[in-house]
Write a structure and sequence with these properties.
single chain
């Protein structure tokens, strides 16, 4: 990934954070992806031509990440509830 593209992403997350569009946690999440050189992030952002497109794409990426984590949490809670239910029946 080029330094220029990294700079555009960092500018986008800083701008979105300043506008309260993303949280500090979300900002950190994107920075983590940059540090890990995440290929999905790079290939997706590389196609953006304007700063507003980068911001919109980053929001989409964050929504996907949080949807996946939310789904995992729900499945874990269901598993715990089932386990408790089985214990209560015994």
């Amino acid at each position: 990934m080029s330094t220029s593209l990294e700079s555009q992403i960092l500018l986008a997350i800083w701008t979105m954070y300043q506008r309260n569009q993303i949280s500090m946690e979300q900002k950190g999440c994107i920075k983590d992806l940059l540090i890990r050189k995440d290929n999905n992030l790079y290939s997706t952002i590389r196609h953006c031509e304007r700063q507003d497109q980068i911001e919109e794409t980053l929001l989409d990426i964050l929504n996907c990440i949080y949807f996946q984590f939310g789904l995992i949490r729900v499945l874990q809670e269901i598993w715990i509830l089932k386990k408790i239910s089985i214990q209560l029946l015994d």
